[in-house]
Here is the input.
Amino acid sequence: MSLPADNVIIAFQLASGLVRGRLVRLGDAVNGVVDGHDYPPRVGALLAETLALAGVLAGSLKYDGVFTLQAQGQGPVSLVVADITSDGAMRGYARFDADKVAAAAEGAPVPNLLGTGYLAFTVDQGLKVERYQGIVDLSGDTLADCAQAYFAQSEQLETKVALVSAPPGDGHGWRAAALMIQRMPANQSGAPILTADDADDAWRTACVLMASATPKEMLAVDLAGETLLHHLFHAENLTQWEPKALVARCRCSEQAVVRMLQSIPRTEIEGLKDDSGKVAITCEFCRTTYAFGDDELEKAYNPPTKSSKA
Here is the structure.
C-alpha cells in the first residue's frame, strides 16, 4: 500500500498507552493557505507552523465543528489564526505590519514577531454545545513552547511539541510538520502497571527519541508519516491509527457575506462603497472578493419572498 506523505494527522501511542501522540505532515494543505498572500518569509513560516500546531491539537480532541487556534500579540504580527473543521478542512491567515516585520530582530518568533499577548484554542460545536476555550500567555521562543506551557499549567500533562516549516523550493511549495507527545496519567483505564521509575523511564525515552527527529525528516516529501514514526519509535511498543486527511478549504460564501451585510444598517452602506460604486468584501482567509452593486444590495436587504400557492 502506498502511504501518503502529506496532508495527514496520524494518531499513535507508545508504551501501551503511557505516551500518546500526533504527527501532522502538511504539503498542499499548507501551501494552499499560505501561498498567494505575499507574506514575508518569516510571517509565512509562522502561519505554516500555526497550521501544523492546530493540526496536532485538533487531532487530540473529539469534536464535531470547528477547532480554532489563534495567537494575538502586540508585536509586528498582531494576529495569526488557523482553524480546522472536524472533516479536515483547514484555513488560516496572519495580520502584520510589513515595516515592523522587516525591522524585527531575527530568531525567536514569539518575542520578536508576536510580542506580548496570548495563545487561545477554541472548539465551537454549535449553539447546543458549550464552547470550550483554553488560553495561555505567549511565552518562550516558539509556539511550541506556548503549547507546552498550556498543557503543563492547565491540563497537568507533560507535553513535548516540535514544529518545523520550509518555504517554497526544489519544486515544492510551503511545507510544515508538527510532532507532539504527551505523558498520560498512570491511573487511566487500560494503562500498563508500571513502577514510578519504569514510567519515568518510558517518558524520558520517548522524549529522547522524539528529539532525534530532524527537520529534514519531518518535512521529507518521500517519507510517509507512518514510516517516520516507525523509525523513531518502533522499539517502544508503537501503535498507529489510520491517518486523517487534511485539505486547504475556506468556508466563506456569498450567503455568509450577505448575512454580515444585513447586520449593518442600510443607511450606513453608502459610506462603504468604493470608487466603482460597489461594496467589496474580501475574505481574509482566501482573498476571495465579493462585490455588491445597487441591485445586489437591494436583494440582500429586501430579499424576494416566495409567493404562496393558491
Remarks:
- The radius of gyration is 22 Å.
- DSSP finds eleven helices and 14 strands in the chain.
